[in-house]
Amino acid sequence: MDIRNMQAIDVHSHYGNHARGINEKIDGFLSADLEKIGTYQKLANIKCSIVSPLSAFLPRGRGDAVAGNVLSESLVNGLKSFLFWVVINPLEPETYKQAEIMLKLPGCAGIKIHPEEHRYPIKDFGYKIFEFAEKNNAIIETHSGDPNSMPCDFVPFADAFPCVKVILSHLGCNFQGDPDGEQVTAIQKSKSVNLYTDTSNFQILFPNILEWGVKEIGAERILFGTDCPLYFSPMIRARVDKAEISDEDKEKILYRNAVNLFKNIPDLGASEEKVSFV
Predict the structure, then answer these.
(1) pLDDT, tens digit (0-9, with 9 covering 90-100), for 218-240
(2) How far apart are CA 86 and CA 173, in angstroms?
């Protein structure tokens, strides 16, 4: 089977308006509703995307996670080609109450956190977040690679809560310019086997980074993510398709790891159904 014909699971995607407020034209380019995300899915042969609303994070320090979670429940829950992350912001305590309810919904994949956009150090809030995730049997997906969320800062919490699976997003992302980004280092340092990373980073396009990551931590620890619409999904997909790794490893990254990790990923063998957008 040609690897390009293999449907992928995108574990890291977004929808909504990119309201960073620095450049209006760029914000427009990086915005997309669910129908547009569906177009990107077709271009990149993506079966299912796990999304979170950009409005929950932006503008930086002023995103409304509570309203964003309500939006995801109303727009995303029940759609055939989407699951959603419920966003927890420890500075918005109500998000814990929302998560406790929404994690029981069939369309909710787990918990999304973003210490950078919400402006809190994971060192100060990690224990409570991980404790909550363990209690609710939830996967965590987090931004990583910036001052409030350096990957190695997650290791003590991951080791203290070995049942909590964590995706340290953005393989290669590091605000200091280190091509390692610490995601690989954190996975290697952890005493448990509960840390993963994903491909949702522009540095994944650099030669050899994905291949190096597979060599260092194994394809089993890397999931396919696009950070769409901040990046062009087919571009990230092509990087995996053309990587100098085995087809077996590509299969693991594109969908097998996600199927093994998430209990509610749609069956890749199911017949295609038309996506209905709310």
Answers:
(1) 999 999 999 999 999 999 999 99
(2) 23
Query: How far apart (Å, rounded) are the C-alpha atoms in residues 198 and 227?
Result: 10
Locate 195 and state its tokens: 């840390």
C-alpha to C-alpha distances, 169 to 43, 53, 143, 226, nearest whole angstrom: 22, 16, 5, 10
Question: Cβ–Cβ contacts within 10 Å for residue 36, how many?
Answer: 14
The reported pTM is 0.94
Q: How far apart are CA 237 and CA 240, in angstroms?
A: 5
User: Between vectors from CA 17 to CA 276 and to CA 125, what angle results, nearest 5°?
Assistant: 105
Return the CA Rg of the chain: 17
User: What span, in angstroms and rounded, lies between the C-alpha atoms of 127 and 228?
Assistant: 29
And the tokens for 49?
């995307």
Residue 39, number of CB atoms within 10 A of its CB: 11
